[in-house]
Design goal:
- There is one protein chain.
- This protein is α+β, with helices and mostly antiparallel strands and about 90 residues long.
- The protein has two helices and five strands, in the order ββααβββ.
- A five-stranded mixed beta sheet has the order 2-1-5-3-4, covered by helices on one side.
- The longest helix has 11 residues.
- The radius of gyration is 12 Å and the shape is globular.
Length: about 90
């Protein structure tokens, strides 16, 4: 089963879980399953059109993917998906 790594800012919506194991075999299915399990993640992860927000990057392994264009990417059982929100700030 594939694993989604949940970033620290979203953990308050996932009962502080650091990862989520998905039984889905596509990226879009995995994201949808995460949202079904933790509905409060939806407004922070998806925009009003149901697309992953533009400031959030998604990686499969070390490769960045656009989940809005490549949602049908197939996941192997040992796939690791990372959700990386942009961090703003600085001087």
């Amino acid at each position: 089963m594939a694993k989604i790594i949940i970033p620290t800012p979203l953990r308050k919506f996932t009962d502080q879980n650091r990862s989520f194991i998905t039984t889905e075999d596509t990226l879009s299915g995995a994201i949808q399953q995460l949202i079904e399990e933790y509905p409060d993640v939806k407004s922070n992860l998806l925009d009003d059109d149901g697309n992953v927000r533009s400031f959030i990057k998604v990686y499969i392994g070390d490769d960045e993917v656009d989940p809005n264009e490549n949602g049908s990417v197939e996941l192997a059982k040992d796939t690791e998906i990372s959700i990386v929100p942009a961090i703003a700030g600085g001087c």
